[in-house]
Write a sequence for this structure.
């Protein structure tokens, strides 16, 4: 994921927490701040130290980033997203995480039902 598409600074996280809306299920909490004024979406991740050691946390983050990439063409452009993973995620497979994250993003009404295919 390009640096341009990441939320890294605490200040950026705080803005999304204050101005964005949250949506959750048992595995994930997703904060969405619509229309960040940029022509691209940005993603911030938070995985608690309670989830396991650094290897486990990084594995979870890599899975979430990959899922976000898979959904990129179905997501609304120009939004900031923060994904906070909860404890049950540590025992989930990639497919289970994908299904759960898809559920939350649909709940947030930012994920289109089908892929946007541009006609040439």
């Amino acid at each position: 994921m390009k640096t341009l598409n990441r939320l890294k600074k605490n200040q950026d996280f705080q803005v999304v927490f204050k101005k964005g809306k949250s949506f959750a299920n048992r595995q994930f909490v997703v904060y969405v701040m619509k229309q960040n004024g940029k022509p691209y979406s940005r993603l911030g991740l938070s995985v608690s130290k309670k989830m396991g050691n650094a290897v486990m946390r990084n594995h979870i983050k890599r899975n979430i980033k990959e899922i976000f990439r898979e959904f990129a063409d179905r997501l609304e452009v120009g939004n900031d997203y923060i994904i906070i993973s909860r404890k049950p995620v540590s025992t989930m497979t990639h497919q289970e995480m994908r299904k759960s994250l898809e559920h939350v993003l649909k709940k947030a009404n930012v994920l289109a039902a089908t892929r946007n295919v541009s006609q040439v």
In short: Residues 3-81 form a domain with the Ribosomal Protein S5; domain 2 fold (CATH 3.30.230.10).
